[in-house]
């Protein structure tokens, strides 16, 4: 019981800090600007926007994942928070899992909200809008997990941001294929695959990120 | 090489034949000592000899390369990093650790008073001077309620009054049955029961 309360305290600190520092809104603003630019670039052809809009919103979601990478793990390593928590007996895996939860809480819901606004610009409505939001809702935990893993792997490296981008893009391809694929006519099986990949990524995040964090102390 | 262990079920601090390897280099080996409740140990030695590594090892942040380290479960490490949210007022920043360590609001005020920071409770941590930051680290340690205090240069940046204040806090901790292991170049105004002088291994081997 005490441990659960302690982990909730850690998660609450992360979430509060991320909303207070404005870091949460950066991906949202980026997402909305990408969605705004696209209709300007391809023109106001409604059919074209309907066909491609969902895919564009998916790509924008992947790119928005990159923005918070450098403030996920590095600051807490630098200012000693992580070591203080380890000295109190928390394991790297537990802390990575807590980071995944807190990152999703400050990344997933705002991104879904932004996707809802942006879909209006693409003319997505009804079932297509529902599918887009469902696929993003399924994928955001996985995107948050990828971000935490990559942030832990690249913590302390020079140019961690650029390297993080290079690492994220290939790892996120399965999510993109099935996420954007779910918007097509035979989409329901794609959603299932998306959910399976998302579960897998979320499940390995605490262990992969935890291993990276313990290796950093050696 | 034997993998060392560190365990956390004891009210004493016992090191048996501890060894530590960092970056492919042996820092120390065969290090044995014991501290009972109410005892303090002082670590001395030249820079880079492994004092901080020994403290991190006891704190559970490093695995010993050999030997066994048994320490109390509740440990507080005070090293050169602040581990407080810089944008928050001191009282709230300490509040995070208080909640984590199960300490009350009153304990926060008491810890700030002991570190001579009572008047800065409402000031965001990022405005603190070097000495005030060091006192904030000490306040975090006082607040932890831990049995074992691991202090890495606790008197760095402190003025003489603050060093005296630190000495009083350390003495009170020892009197209450706590254990202290400190590495310090600045003389601390308490009597240590154990003095460990770490020496560079190459020099030791040259003597043999």
Number of helices of chain A: 9
Q: Tell me the CATH topology of the domain at 77-183 in chain B.
A: Rossmann fold
The amount of helix of chain A comes to over 70%
What is the tally of beta strands of chain B?
9
Query: What is the first-to-last residue Cα distance of chain B?
Result: 22 Å
CATH class wording of the domain at 77-183 in chain B: Alpha Beta
- Low-confidence spans of chain B: none
Pair with the biggest interface: A-B, 21 and 24 residues
Class derived from helix and strand content of chain A = mainly alpha
- What's the oligomerization state? heterodimer
Second rung of CATH, namely the architecture of the domain at 77-183 in chain B: 3-Layer(aba) Sandwich
Q: What is the overall silhouette of chain A?
A: elongated
Mind describing the biggest β-sheet of chain A?
Answer: none
Instruction: Give me the secondary-structure category of chain B.
Output: alpha/beta
Based on CA atoms alone, the radius of gyration of chain B comes out at 17 Å
Rg of chain A over CA atoms, rounded to whole Å, is 18 Å
- The H/E string of chain A reads HHHHHHHHH
Q: How many structural units, i.e. domains of chain A?
A: 1
Give a quick precis of the structure.
The complex is a heterodimer of chains A (218) and B (208). With 218 residues, chain A is mainly α. Chain A is 83% helix and 0% strand.
Layout of secondary structure:
The complex is a heterodimer of chains A (218) and B (208).
Chain A: H1 2-20, H2 25-42, H3 46-66, H4 74-78, H5 81-87, H6 92-122, H7 126-154, H8 160-181, H9 188-217
Helix pairs in contact in A: 1-6, 2-3, 2-6, 3-6, 3-7, 3-8, 6-7, 6-9, 7-8, 7-9, 8-9
Chain B: E1 5-7, E2 13-22, E3 25-35, E4 40-44, H1 51-59, E5 66-70, E6 75-78, H2 90-100, H3 105-114, H4 130-143, E7 148-152, H5 160-175, E8 179-183, E9 194-197, H6 201-207
Parallel strand pairs in B: 1-5, 4-8, 4-9, 6-7, 7-8
Antiparallel strand pairs in B: 2-3, 2-5
Helix pairs in contact in B: 2-3, 2-4, 3-4
